[in-house]
Amino acid sequence: MRNIKHSLTILIWIILLVNKQKCDSQHIKTTEKNNYDYNKRLVDDNNNDDDDERPTKFVLDGFDENGGFLKRYNITFNYTTFMFNEYSTLKAIYGFQTGIICSEEDIDKNDNEKKTLLLWHPGSRSSFSSSAKFANLFPMWYISQKKKNEIFCLKLEGVGWDNNAVQKICEGEHPCPDLISLGTTQLSYRYEKGETISLNNYFAKYFKKTGISIESLINKYSYYDYRINNNWLAIPIIADLRPFRFNKTTFDYCIKEGYDLHYPPPHSDYWGTNYYQTWTWEKAFEYAKMIKNCTGYPGFRIYGSKSEDTKFFIQFCQSTGIPFLIEDPDLNIKKCGFRDKNYIKKLEIIKDIFENHYVTAIIILK
Known about the structure:
- The protein is an alpha+beta fold.
- It has helices spanning 35-45, 87-91, 129-135, 138-146, 161-166, 184-192, 200-210, 222-226, 248-256, 275-278, 281-295, 308-319, 341-355, and strands at residues 5-6, 10-17, 57-63, 69-78, 83-84, 98-103, 115-121, 152-158, 179-183, 227-228, 231-232, 235-241, 244-245, 325-328, 333-336.
- Helices cover 32% and strands 20% of the residues.
């Protein structure tokens, strides 16, 4: 696009603990939103451990889509950064369908001496980049389980977006993952298939142990995404943000043409130090109109093709104080939250930019 490039939304990824009839119920219960918080709390829980006894040497074995062995990596966990020193290398690995990470002392043990959990995620079948994030979580959890005389390894498998959401699991010859990292939009299918379990008891145990409620750690919209019939079914771990971008060349051109445009903050002092109050959606859409008048092209773009229009609309509602969903306790249902005169008034600016083509077309009519 030649004008303002914008797409701002939040996509929450979740860990889903699979409700299996055939598989054992050993599950990793990752609650924090990033590696550091999760690992730091495990360190606090295990702060009586001798630092010299904490394992630093781990092994990652990589396999192709047919289960053929490809390569072994010896990696070192850093208890200061709570990441592997080779994390950049792990992210750059291509060709791994799956990776199995174990402590160096456990990697060659027989299956009857250790348990291997299988974690699915929607990452690429050929790139280990997505798996590397979960690899960083393993060492501290491994320590907590070893204290209970349990030896675990973790098998990480990128199965692609579609398989992650809809492939049959734990039936007949179908694979049976212990955990699945799902996108918010993928959870509903697994729920309808009866492949989720309630995490309420875990929430209660976590609060009793730490004095911290998991509910206080997560976005309020998680109540609507992952809580059904008073049961917590999943826990958000990653917020995927879409950044706001603008085209400096277009701004410079229109400024020379006499339009009263200023670079968005923090690229201009025009907005002052409190630019969270001065740079608003109204101003962004006003600029989209000016750029359309200046160039003849829409001045605003929702970038992307995977439901980005819906994600943008949800994010707009959240940032302007419009409740996208509300819960009716009397009827025990969730309802559209913006059917209110004040909220409809706020939404009129969305109507204006679409009707006047200040934003690029999302649906191409032929």
